[in-house]
Amino acid sequence: MTQAPAATRRLTAVLREEERVTPLELFFDLVFVLAITQCTALMAGQPTWTGLAKGLAVLAVLWWCWGAYAWLTSVVDPEEGAVRLVIFGAMASLLVAALCVPGAFDDSALIFALAYGAVRIAHILLFVLASRDDPGLRYSVLTLAGSTALGVGLLTAAAFVDGWAKAALWAVALLLDISGPAFFGVEGWKIVPGHFAERHGLIVLIAIGESIVAIGVGVSGEVDAGVVAAATAGTIVAAGLWWLYFDVVALVAQRRLARTTPGREQNSLARDSYSYLHYPMVAGIVLVALGMKKTLGDVGEPLKLVPAAALFGGTAVYLLAHVCFRLRNVRTLSRRRLLIGALLLALIPAAVEIPALAAVTLVAALLSALIAYEAVRFSEARDRVRHELVQEVAAE
Questions:
Q1: Are 236 and 368 in contact (CB under 8 A)?
Q2: pLDDT band at 16 (very low <50, low <70, confident <90, very high)
Q3: Domains of the chain
Q4: pLDDT of 234 over the 70 cut
């Protein structure tokens, strides 16, 4: 029997040969960095509850778009043949969509919707090619194509209306698009667990990097002692967000996903833990970045209500997403993270009464205390988890 050409084989529904994230995937993610930055800029330019809602809605749309490609590249090799070229085209469209983020609800609404639609169409077309020899995957792709078409169509329609009608169309578009995999099932999808978990971990890292960028962007005047102190506290906050995810949580979740039975069980866990629950993590980090940007603008003055809610509430959302993430993966409740998250929400009214420097220092102190407590209280379990995983990797 004649063997199919290599380029053709790369488009069949065969799991990728390696679990590592490829350079092209990282290149694609760099465009998403701009999208995250633009969402922060949108909220910073409109520091109101409406501006916050707009920024989070746009981030949700772009997150779902990015996540679609994480699922895609667990099936096809993005470095080969036509796949590479189509992904380059998708990157160009995603870049245009990112550039339109500040005006996604105004003058740039139509261009944003069309660019976003082009990214999603490229994703569906590649999945159609990848699923031609796999009926189960083909069914899943076609159902996703239906919910995607509805979502893109509603976002396009929203470009021609204003006010509550626009908000309603955006809400329905998000609901239909995101609920598609939950409503139609996940039996036909395929993933490589190590790659899938690493890809999402890297996007969390990118989002945390945005909070560091926000520190630099927020400084508009002289770098004095107050700015130095705020920048230091902000770095501690960012480091705390990193530690809370990458020290143990990401490692345990990756192993849990890898040990789950392939098919419906594994795909459901991947959908819930990564596609769904990583969005509030990333959104929380983006909100923290917004709060940091406003803090560095004037460290001696109190934050206004919305930036204070972004700083404290964003950190709380991040922690509460971790609580849900742990529940979904290991069926246990992290009472400590739940408690600190609730405390951060309760402190929002106080945050508008103290200098911005004191506010960010308070957040840094709470995260540091949480990390220190967990490191001491669970030192043996932490050491065991980390060393077991290292041994597993070394044995492969």
A1: yes
A2: low
A3: 19-190 (no CATH), 191-213+221-396 (1.20.1410)
A4: yes
39/286 Cα distance (integer angstroms): 8
What does the radius of gyration of the chain's CA atoms come to, in whole angstroms? 21
CA distance 207 to 200: 11
With a cut of 60, say whether residue 394 has pLDDT above it. Answer: no
Q: What residues are paired with 302 via a beta bridge?
A: 355
DSSP symbol at 332? -
- Contact residues for 120 (Cβ-Cβ < 8 A; gap 6+): 65, 68, 148, 151, 152
Distance of CA 379 to the CA centre of its chain: 29
Report the greatest alpha carbon distance in the chain.
76
Length of the chain in terms of residues written: 396
Rounded to 5 degrees, φ, ψ at 104 are -65, -20
Please give the average per-residue pLDDT across 264-273, as a whole number. 92
- The one-character DSSP state at 302 is B
Residue 362 CA: distances (Å) to CA of 21, 36, 145, 347, 355: 37, 25, 46, 10, 11
Q: Give the CA angle between residues 14, 6, 267 to the nearest 5°.
A: 15
Q: Which phi and psi (to 5°) does residue 31 adopt?
A: -70, -35
| Spatial contact of 130 and 189, defined as CB atoms under 8 Å apart | no
Is the Cα dihedral 332, 334, 339, 342 positive or negative? negative
What is the torsion angle, in degrees rounded to the nearest 10, for the CA atoms of residue 276, residue 281, residue 286 and residue 289?
180
**Tens digit of pLDDT for each residue in 34-79?**
888 899 889 988 889 999 999 999 999 999 999 999 998 888 888 7
pLDDT surpasses 90 at 308: yes
| Residue 312 in tokens | 């404290």
Q: What is the C-alpha end-to-end distance of the chain, expressed in Å? A: 33
DSSP 8-state assignment for residue 103: G
Of 106-110, 135-139, 236-240, 241-245, the range with the lowest mean pLDDT is 135-139
**Nearby residues of 94 by Cβ (< 8 Å), 6 or more positions away:** 28, 31, 32, 35, 62, 65, 115, 119
Q: What distance in Å separates the CA atoms of residue 390 and residue 251, rounded to the nearest whole number?
A: 10
Give the number of C-alpha atoms closer than 13 A to the C-alpha of residue 113, restricted to the C-beta side. Answer: 23
Encode pLDDT of 336-388 as tens digits: 999 999 999 999 999 999 999 999 999 999 999 999 999 998 888 878 877 77
